[in-house]
């Protein structure tokens, strides 16, 4: 069995397990452990991918720290990445060895009613879930002791080679740099899509964004591309405003500096009655309710993107919902279809409309992956790219 | 002062009118038919001679409410049609003799919302449960000189009422009055909810929770939009036969689903959920059930029912985020009172929108309390109350 940097051109690895490096999450809250793992060959309708680079998203952090039943260890985290197909399993016609691809946690089987509908990106054949397995309920990873390692979000990118179902893979046809491409498998697509697809932000409109992490900034970028006239960013950290300006944010509200007023009051005053679109990007139920309170009566849309704890509830006054003319909706992966819509986003990047460079604030090599976690937790990074071959 | 005045003589213009009204004097008690004084219209107002009025459940709710925002004594009623007896200063939109429908939802025509196609929530005269006209005063007094409160800016259980022009729509006099009055609230709300708020697409699946007049109006609106399957959900299976005439194709008796929730039944019937789910009762748990019955990916849940003040809707954050569903409310069906009601009238005159089936009973004004009994007893859809019978 070969280690990493196997000679793929000789086709010697196809059909065989690969031994390579992975950053394994062994215990909740503890740094990932760099170790060698065995990656089984792809099964029916799966492909094995050599990861070029991967970026850290807050959901990886959340699941590294999670102790409750939803979490499971040992696990290979990571779900934002780009790579090259090393081998394909039986029944795969869509991809070939050597294809550059983005693995995506959202599936697109292209056959079910949702995939065939323009209105939905929620594949019914392979529904979204944070699963420890691939779609067939098994794992392709074992450690050197033969113990199973769990998958993450159908992707698992903190490893030199991963196995993914074809429904979770999008081909890249254009020469987009890898450290830009990887951003599109989660965060940036989620934010840009939420503005463009889910909310359908109109030109000249007003947008309010609660939470200026990567998702919030991606929403701002998407709103900017849609021609929004005013993009208000709300965060408890005023240091974020300077950077946020580079993403299209025109006004800032420090949610800890409002005095007696609620944030929604401030926004209602700033916008003469409410923003046309309010996005919640922090993952806090009370912020969704605040967002709802400052979206414009008559036509305002409140879009939920951030994920709160599993049991959390959103509460609204019945009479307000009835009489205020506002809409509430959620957006998963920005409402985007992974295979059809990502190429459109890539094209907008290649045409120099969508800006991705500003999202990458740090780059490290694989053995320093834990630094990426530190940077994100300290609030110092937006996206840190982790290169496999550095 | 004349009792029932001839409008053509213009003898009442500018003077108070003494006429009959059905006054709600005490919460929960029958209306009292008595004489009242109706002051002339002030600036921007008109005085309307009511031809007929119909009873809506909101009138019942407010008759029975002991606490604010209910207030007594009051003249209830908000679904009506009438003829203008006189106009106040500054009124150019209407003239004496015009046939009009007073509407609880205002349209000033000038504010950002009125000018926007997307909103029907006038900012100049916002909707509220107010005991007054728009200027904060009343035009009604009883014979002892005591103020009688208005209701929803309309107050139609009286031979004459005063209304602000923002709350008034002109009506083509060819439409029979006992069809026109329905458009002042219930039917417009339901039809509009399907047509305008939800934008029901041809061939789609609709689920309607609550088969009272609003729910049936939603069915009628969905039928007009070409919905392929219209599921009616109610606790009373006797409603199904009537509901078929309104376009309802399938029925779920919510008290006979055994171990299953209504949403489970609907998800099974629709292969994953209805495209549009309308809550037309006014119960938070039903809104939540409607949400659970809507199709992932694109399902819309539309709230129409008026719940108790303070009632709250609760959803799982995870469901809202990950199921791709939308929640919205529909007030007066999302319709602009002046423009859109005209469109409904036209569709009725063109024999597309059917209104006759909504009127199940008709009574004279002195029997107005029978209308309440019929509605509370679940025996009527719309009972029309004629002033001059």
Structure, described:
The complex is a heterodimer of chains A (390) and B (389). Chain A has helices at residues 58-65, 113-116, 178-181, 187-198, 214-225, 240-245, 263-270, 285-293, 318-323, 338-350, 369-377, and strands at 18-24, 33-39, 46-55, 80-88, 100-103, 141-143, 148-149, 161-165, 169-171, 206-210, 230-235, 251-254, 277-280, 301-304, 313-317, 327-330, 360-365, 383-387. Chain A is of the alpha/beta class and 390 residues long. The two termini of chain A are 22 Å apart. By secondary structure, chain B is α/β, with parallel strands linked by helices. In chain B, strands 3, 4, 5, 8, 9, 17 and 18 form a seven-stranded mixed beta sheet that branches. Chain B has a six-stranded parallel beta sheet with strand order 12-11-10-13-14-16, sandwiched between helices. Chain B starts with 16 loop residues before the first strand and ends with a strand. At the A-B interface, strand 15, helix 9 and strand 16 of A face strand 15, helix 9 and strand 16 of B. Strand 16 (327-330) of chain A pairs antiparallel with strand 16 (326-329) of chain B, so a sheet runs across the interface. Chain B: Residues 214-346 form the Alcohol dehydrogenase-like C-terminal domain. Chain B: Belongs to the zinc-containing alcohol dehydrogenase family. Chain B: This is Alcohol dehydrogenase.
The Rg value of chain A, from CA coordinates, equals 21 Å
Number of helices of chain B: 11
Termini gap of chain A: 22 Å
Low-pLDDT runs of chain B: 1-7
What is the SS-derived class of chain A?
A: alpha/beta
Largest sheet of chain A: 7 strands, mixed
Amino- and carboxy-terminal Cα gap of chain B: 22 Å
What's the overall geometry of chain A?
globular
**Backbone shape of chain B:** globular
Average pLDDT rating of chain A: 94
Q: Would you list the SSEs of chain B in sequence order as H and E? A: EEEHEEHEEEEHHEHEHEHEHEEHEHEHE
Task: Indicate the multimeric state.
Answer: heterodimer
The whole-angstrom Rg of chain B is: 21 Å
